[in-house]
User: Fold this.
Amino acid sequence: MTLVNPGIVATSFFEHPSFARFPRPARRRAIAPEVVAAAIVRAVRRGRVEVTIPAHYAIGTVLKTVAPALFRRLMQRYA
Assistant:
């Protein structure tokens, strides 16, 4: 089993009207589904327990665990 923590994936999911107010900067950071799929395949082949895509987003997982209030403030400001 591999836990997958993807960022925003560029799919039609975000075209739904309920996402009309979703921040444009966040939309621009969306990752192509093919990139996510390739990372998942690599992680499974390597026996990784967890994979964050893109890898630099893993800092958010650590920050959310260590300093949840700071994490929430950053998400409100930059998401």
